[in-house]
Amino acid sequence: MASFLSGSLAKALNDGFKGQSLPATLRKVETANSGGLDAFGDPLVPVATSYPCKGFTDAYSAFFKAGSGIPETDLKVCIFAASLASGIRPERDDKVYLGGAWYQIRQCDTDPATALWTCQAFACNAPED
């Protein structure tokens, strides 16, 4: 169920951080909806698509990491939902380029208004393709 605040709150949050958030790129690697096979039954080549967005990184507290079993190297990659194209959502194994570094997402959560995506992520190498 969508929140009655999802449009207005997401836009207000995005507008409020204008000039303070960092430009970012969400990179998704997807295969076609055909189950990943072409007409001859051969695997399709996954296609990488990049989506511009805005966000920032944040650290987990040592207390929270210890209590939740979060690896020491993980951090929060926060993406403003209103800065993403409509219908695009960060997901596990997507990569984000933010602040001059690449991060791979382990999991993503959002608030009830879907204004901010908070993703547990770790630093990774730049994609090769």
Task: Jot down its keywords.
129 residues; mainly beta; Thrombin, subunit H; 6-stranded antiparallel barrel
What can you tell me about this protein's structure?
With 129 residues, this protein is mainly beta. The protein has a single domain, classed as Bacteriophage SPP1 head-tail adaptor protein (Thrombin, subunit H). Helices cover 14% and strands 39% of the residues. The chain is built from two helices and six strands; from the N terminus they run H-E-E-H-E-E-E-E. The protein has helices spanning 6-16, 62-68; strands spanning 22-30, 47-58, 75-80, 95-98, 101-110, 116-124. A six-stranded antiparallel barrel has the order 1-2-3-6-5-4. Strand 5 and strand 6 form a beta hairpin. The protein is globular, with a radius of gyration of 16 Å. The model has no long low-confidence stretch (mean pLDDT 86).
Radius of gyration: 16 Å
Would you identify the regions where 5 or more consecutive residues have pLDDT less than 50?
A: none
Largest sheet: 6 strands, antiparallel, barrel
Number of domains: 1
The third-level CATH topology is Thrombin, subunit H
What would you say about this model in short?
This protein has 129 residues and is mainly β.
SSE blueprint:
Blueprint: H1 6-16, E1 22-30, E2 47-58, H2 62-68, E3 75-80, E4 95-98, E5 101-110, E6 116-124
Antiparallel strand pairs: 1-2, 1-4, 2-3, 3-6, 4-5, 5-6
